[in-house]
Amino acid sequence: MKKILFILLIFPLSIQLSVAQNLKRANHLFEKRAYLNAAELFLNEEPKTQEVLQKLADCYYFNTKMSEAEQYYKMLLQTHEANVDPTYLFRYSQALKGVKKFTEADKWQQKYLVKKQMTTAEKQETLPFFETLNSKIKKPYIVHKVSINSKNSDFGTAYFGDKVVFASTRNKGKLYLWNNQPYLDLFVADIDHSQDLKNVVPFASSINSKMHESNAIFTKDGKTMYFTRNNFDSGKNNSDKNKVTHLKIYRAQLVNNKWTNILELPFNSNNYSTEHPAMSPDEKQLYFASDMPGTIGSFDLFVVDINTDGTYGAPKNLGPKINTEHREQFPFVSSDNILYFASDGHLGMGGLDIFKSQISDESFSKPINLSNVINSNLDDFAFVINEENEKGYFSSNREGGIGDDDIYRFTKEKTYNVHGLVQDKNSLLPLPNTLVTLFDENNNFISEITVGEDAKYSFDIENNKSYKIRGALKLYVPSEIDFTVNAKGDINKNIQLLIESYDDAEQNVITEAGKTQIKINPIYFDFDKWNIRPDAALELNNVVALMKKHTDMQLEIGAHTDARGSNEYNLKLSHKRAQSVLEYLMSQGILENKLKSVGYGETQPLNNCVEPKMCSEAEYSINRRCEFVLTN
Asked: Which residues fall within 8 angstroms of residue 230, CB to CB, at 6 or more apart?
């Protein structure tokens, strides 16, 4: 009986010891960043405490397994929301984006901002943000996977002359505990005519080691390279207090076609990582990412001067316009001095998104997201571009890839531009409110714009096509210009649109008293009649000729009487006379929609003869008239 009792007592004790050892082992693996192995042990932990749920969700989050991460962050927040650090609200939001639950993600992002006491921050709504962003993009990206992607990870491209160097786990060897994949090496590939990559071979054996190498960059002369490598030199203990080996940036030089003089940079450390080097266009500065002390977030972007004697200045943080409380990594500076980088702290589709910021006198413009054509709901990073041909590469672990990370090539949809200024042909003054219209070679409407106060217009056009551009303004003769874009699309055309007013273009069109009119000899009607007499027809034919010459011209035919007779009688008579003139013009081929007839009676005299028997016949005759006022 005592023996049985001893066994019953020892059995639960052994279970407790086993459970404790399991949790200790899981925590040890987690601290060493062996996340997938740690996750297997955390899964067996019961009950799942707040700490276990946090670490289990993090294990999946740090390996971009967002479906599993979302599941365990949800369990964590259902029970422990009031007690968790705000970071877990942010990570849950990112995990939700990773499974395309954008509306729910926005809700948790807002909770994160409130808990961080960032209540003044603008409310962020992902899908409306990208809808607005895409509407402003004039040159959308066209994206394709490159054909050399493997079933493991391929990422981090850099131009190396007419080739590309990238990092890959396609080699066989020791596994990296973070993701259970082989360690990264550098590889080199040719660029074909379509910008695809081919003929992959390992990079120099003096650079590739038994640990990680990634994210190489090269000087323009091809004689110096910088790259990221694990810290492992000389068998020394180079890990931090948690036995984590960090990343460092190294420099190498090409001597007699061999990469040698490999040297780690002086601002590296065993206690933090420096990674992802990038050079300024003049090669006088080196940009990089680091989690060194003084960062705003988990990783920030820094810049350091490269001195002429080969030494380096002190690293400078790029500041809060670029860096956030989260991750900023993978910088690249283009020949146009534009900083491209990856971030999960600025508003994006989820995970790392790629942003750009113009550099000017060591200051930076507000980062702009490169849209959801380049960016996905997972990680998008390591963007490089040739600004001359607007082509480049980036890396992503988005859905539809071959491996855990893949390389994508992109180009900007090639568009060309016609632009210019609308001016008065004679005075050369700008003409605001002109309607400028673009037509194709078959006279089909493409686009139009009413110019503003600066009288400038602009349209996107395509190569190997012919167009017509037309300017039209009230009281001006429309102007049309034909032009052609050659087969190479070699055009950024500036077309000056000169348009002439009707009163400058035609001798019998004048502007006076605020009216622009066609001036002809007076038209006479028989007393109390409204039919067109032969002598009146001869004068009206001058109006017909002018309107056939200028087919956009529109007229108001205004008939007026003198003051003799009643108001009602004169108004009716003027309507009939104006209508008779309209019908005559139509009989000569003028379209009805170009004409309008109005009878004014005696309401608009040109002199003071406003009563019967107060003026001579000659004075009264001045008011008996037809006016042809241009309305367009």
From this structure: 183, 209, 211, 212, 245, 246, 247, 248
- As a whole number of angstroms, the longest Cα–Cα distance in the chain is 147
**Ranges of residues in the chain whose predicted pLDDT is under 50:** 1-15, 17, 120, 234-235, 237
Confirm whether pTM is higher than 0.70. Answer: no
Superfamily per CATH, domain 506-630: OmpA-like domain (3.30.1330.60)
CB 423 within 8 A of CB 497: yes
Task: Note the CATH number of domain 141-412.
Answer: 2.120.10.30
Measured CA to CA, the distance from residue 34 to residue 27 in angstroms comes to 10
Where b means 16+ CB within 10 Å and e means fewer, 93-104 reads bbbbbbbebbeb
CATH of domain 22-124: 1.25.40.10
CA 88 from chain centre, in angstroms, equals 30
Per-residue DSSP letter, 234: G
Measure the CA–CA gap between 337 and 346, rounded to whole angstroms: 21
Report d(CA 400, CA 406) in Å as an integer.
10
CATH number of the domain at 416-503, please?
2.60.40.1120
Rounded (5°) CA angle 355-108-75:
120
Given a contact cutoff of 8 angstroms between Cβ atoms, the answer to whether 371 and 133 are in contact is yes
